[in-house]
Task: inverse folding
């Protein structure tokens, strides 16, 4: 039931962000939301997903917490297959290339995102997988 409600909510939120050009739905509490466009790793079909993000050093960071579930979110798995995508943020849309933070970069960014959004710590405790941090950089 939770998965169905989550999917329903994210679909509605993505729709509101899209039709309002980011004026509605792009801020949920303390979190800023962007729309991530990827291609399905199996189907090749386009997918649009609203995800919380952080802006840092001219890049966009997204935490693949998937609410502490035991598996990575589909959008993370899609980006592992094809790291090129598009994001809609603050009324703009642009192409991006994604990579996952590793090593020292991961440690530094994990400290940063958990300081700004402590629930990520709880999500990490709920799962045995390491929660990925995906970094998006503009490609044009």
Result:
């Amino acid at each position: 039931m939770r998965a169905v409600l989550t999917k329903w909510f994210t679909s509605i939120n993505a729709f509101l962000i899209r039709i309002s050009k980011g004026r509605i739905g792009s801020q949920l509490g303390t979190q800023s939301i962007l729309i991530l466009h990827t291609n399905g790793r199996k189907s090749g079909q386009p997918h649009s997903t609203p995800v919380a993000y952080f802006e840092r050093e001219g890049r966009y960071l997204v935490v693949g917490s998937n609410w502490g579930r035991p598996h990575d979110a589909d959008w993370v798995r899609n980006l592992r297959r094809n790291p090129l995508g598009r994001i809609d943020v603050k009324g703009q849309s642009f192409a991006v290339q994604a990579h996952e933070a590793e090593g020292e970069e991961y440690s530094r960014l994990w400290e940063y995102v958990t300081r700004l959004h402590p629930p990520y710590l709880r999500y990490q405790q709920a799962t045995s997988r390491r929660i990925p941090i995906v970094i998006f950089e503009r490609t044009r």
About this structure: Residues 84 and 128 are 28 Å apart (CA to CA).
